[in-house]
C-alpha cells in the first residue's frame, strides 16, 4: 500500500479547514439569530412580564403602619381596570383600618412563572409565590407563604394587574 502523496494530504487538510470554517460561520449565524432575532425579544418581554407580576403581588401585599399611604399608592400604581376601580373604592377604608390596628404586612417574592403570554394582545398571566410576614399592635408576627394568580395588561407605563387573587395551596 502506498502512502498518500503530499498533494493529497494538502487537499484533504484544505477541505477539512473549509468545512471547519463553514461550521464556525453557521454556528455564529445561529447564535446571532437566537440572541438578536424575534425569539430573543419575546424571551426578554416574557422576563419583563414575570418580573412585573412579582412586583405587583409584593406591592398589593405590603403595607406598614409608618408608610401606609406610600404602600397603598404603590399598590394602586400596580393596577389597571377592572381591579383598579375596585381598589379605589375601598382604599381609604382599608388605610384607616390598617392605621387603627397598626397592622404590618410585608411580602417578599419567592418565585413566579408565566402561565400565559400574548405579546400581540399585550396580556399575560402568572402564578406568583410570596412569603408574607404579618403582625399588628397586639399580635406576634406570623409567617406564611401564599400563591397568587395575576392577570396583567401591558400599558404605556408597563405591566399592570387587571386581576390578582390568592389561589389554593396556601401554607
Description:
With 171 residues, this protein is α+β, with helices and mostly antiparallel strands. It is built from 4 helices and 4 strands. The chain has helices spanning 6-36, 38-60, 68-76, 83-101; strands at residues 104-118, 123-136, 139-155, 158-166. The protein has a 4-stranded antiparallel beta sheet with strand order 1-2-3-4. A hairpin with a 2-residue loop joins strand 2 and strand 3 (139-155). Helix 3 packs antiparallel against helix 4 (83-101). It is elongated, with a radius of gyration of 27 Å.
Short structural summary:
By secondary structure, the protein is α+β, with helices and mostly antiparallel strands. It has helices at residues 6-36, 38-60, 68-76, 83-101, and strands at 104-118, 123-136, 139-155, 158-166. The radius of gyration is 27 Å and the shape is elongated.
